[in-house]
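Weekly sync, protein design subgroup
Attendees: M.S., D.O., the rotation student, P.L. (late)

Item 1: inverse folding check
M.S. brought a backbone from last month's batch and wanted to see whether the design step gives back something sensible before we order anything. D.O. pointed out we never logged the input encoding, so this time it goes straight into the notes. Structure tokens as presented (551 positions):
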């Protein structure tokens, strides 16, 4: 849509937006349940707003992570939107659904050297980075029951962060999440940290496959997992998308190793204790089952009341990014600044805008300045003050849920081989990093998994075990049974395999119907459908050439 079609003109009064003179908004749908509008104010200021209907069952909010890793990951808002679009999600409380990203904005402040966000983060139900203890604030939170709130001061009571070992009946407190492991500490590493734990060999690590993300689940609730591998004095454990690594040193390592065995059940419980901004008065908002959250600063609007601040970062006019909400909508807001066309806003002006134009009751400021960016359906809508998008640490998206799709071409227990060199990824989708590779013609096995053959990032994905390595590979790179092109199943690919290929050749989109005795349509697809499009045609010949070996 054209921006000029969406401009709205407000009324300024003594440099502050009038609460009574706001022009009616002209919301335009950008997806079912999600709308967009632009506001041209006489300061001058250009404001870009997306809103999501909180009751729209197909819509949800997710946080994003630069390059998919909290350790040194930075990426533009456009890059993160593309990374998480069509990627696997846990929305609906089961892995397999996918994000259809509609709106994306930048998120928390971050360390310019390390790229690590300043505050905490919850991503797809994983508590991936803790908010600081008693730091005075936390951030916006979206929960599995569609509730929202803006967190205040939090802490993590040591005795309430617990791993329970069911077989022994013992439990052990863990000291942190996704941070460097210290002396005699137990740290939980989740998939958002990095490809591996990046630890040394002075401790012990236990790989645990989780039935669901860890979430924030205070005892007696818990996230259940199963021990898959015990790694004493080994470090740098690979972290698959649905696993955690329990990493311990010293006395904590001794306790860990004394209580685990392969196949045993472990339970992870954790709690966020919530206070008012004074860090002493208990606050009723409950972090249990929060799905997405990022840190922010300046809770500028609370219960319909603008919160005063004398902080220079709040009183000066800058480009801004903010999240606000009321009982009906969640709003993403970006304000251009540092230009003659748009001067930016202070926190008071931002709060007044949210009240006057959006009828929002609560709002929190995110990282602004050159970081401020809003992406909608493939386009950056605002004018970043740096002149181009800045790579940032994290962000938020409004997305629609795409239902789970599973392929039945293969099944758990199948023997498979690679048609060419295949990268093994920690999860199903190109948004997940690779950690190893198998060469052309490598033989493997498909273990059982609830989402074997899941559709993500435009391809179906299979969890495959190749020797000591297990990872996810796309459908187009593996085949069931014998070698690629071995139509007569004699263990090689030679001239004798051309008659079976000719019998299987049916053309684009046509199912094979071989008349050669003993050759089935399934055999044709397994041996010759190298591009995995459910037919055998001339395009498959290119995939057969690497397998040619002669008699």
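Designed sequence read out in the meeting:
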């Amino acid at each position: 849509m054209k921006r000029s079609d969406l401009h709205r003109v407000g009324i300024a009064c003594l440099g502050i937006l009038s609460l009574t003179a706001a022009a009616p908004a002209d919301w335009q749908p950008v997806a079912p349940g999600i709308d967009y509008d632009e506001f041209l104010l006489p300061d001058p200021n250009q404001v870009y707003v997306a809103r999501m209907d909180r009751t729209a069952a197909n819509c949800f909010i997710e946080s994003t992570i630069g390059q998919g890793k909290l350790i040194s990951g930075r990426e533009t808002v456009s890059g993160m939107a593309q990374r998480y679009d069509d990627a696997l999600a846990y929305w609906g409380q089961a892995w397999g659904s996918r994000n259809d990203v509609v709106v994306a904005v930048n998120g928390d402040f971050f360390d310019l050297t390390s790229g690590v966000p300043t505050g905490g983060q919850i991503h797809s139900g994983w508590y991936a980075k803790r908010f600081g203890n008693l730091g005075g604030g936390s951030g916006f939170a979206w929960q599995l029951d569609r509730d929202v709130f803006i967190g205040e001061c939090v802490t993590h009571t040591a005795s309430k962060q617990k791993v329970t070992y069911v077989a022994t009946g013992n439990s052990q407190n863990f000291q942190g999440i996704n941070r460097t492991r210290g002396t005699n500490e137990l740290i939980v590493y989740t998939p958002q940290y990095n490809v591996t734990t990046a630890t040394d060999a002075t401790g012990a690590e236990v790989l645990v496959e989780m039935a669901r993300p860890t979430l924030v689940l205070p005892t007696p609730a818990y996230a259940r997992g199963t021990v898959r591998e015990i790694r004493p004095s080994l470090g740098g454990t690979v972290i698959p998308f649905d696993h955690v690594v329990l990493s311990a040193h010293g006395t904590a390592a001794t306790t860990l190793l004394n209580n685990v065995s392969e196949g045993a059940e472990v339970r992870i419980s954790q709690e966020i204790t919530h206070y008012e901004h004074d860090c002493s008065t208990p606050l009723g908002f409950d972090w249990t089952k929060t799905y997405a959250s990022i840190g922010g600063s300046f809770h500028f609007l609370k219960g319909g009341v603008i919160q005063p601040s004398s902080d220079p970062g709040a009183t000066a006019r800058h480009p801004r990014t903010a999240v606000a909400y009321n009982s009906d909508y969640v709003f993403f807001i970006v304000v251009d600044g540092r230009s003659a066309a748009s001067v930016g806003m202070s926190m008071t002006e931002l709060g007044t805008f949210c009240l006057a134009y959006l009828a929002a009751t609560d709002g929190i400021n995110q990282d602004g300045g050159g970081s401020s960016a809003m992406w909608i359906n493939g386009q950056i809508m605002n004018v970043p003050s740096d002149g181009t998008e800045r790579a940032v640490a994290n962000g938020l998206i409004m997305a629609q849920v795409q239902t789970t799709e599973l392929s039945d071409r293969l099944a758990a227990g199948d023997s498979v081989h690679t048609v060419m060199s295949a990268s093994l990824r920690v999860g199903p989708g190109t948004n997940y990093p690779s950690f190893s590779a198998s060469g052309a013609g490598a033989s493997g096995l498909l273990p059982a998994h609830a989402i074997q053959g899941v559709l993500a990032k435009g391809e179906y994905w299979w969890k495959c075990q190749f020797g000591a390595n297990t990872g996810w590979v796309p459908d187009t790179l593996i085949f069931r049974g014998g070698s690629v092109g071995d139509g007569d199943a004699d263990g090689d690919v030679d001239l004798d395999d051309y008659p079976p290929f000719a019998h299987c050749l049916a053309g684009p989109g046509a199912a094979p119907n071989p008349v050669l005795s003993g050759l089935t349509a399934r055999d044709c697809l397994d041996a010759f459908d190298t591009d995995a499009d459910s037919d055998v045609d001339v395009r498959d010949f290119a995939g057969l050439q690497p397998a040619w070996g002669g008699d």
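Discussion: Confidence is low (pLDDT under 50) at residues 1-21. The first strand starts at residue 12 and ends at 13.
Action: P.L. to compare against the previous round before Friday.
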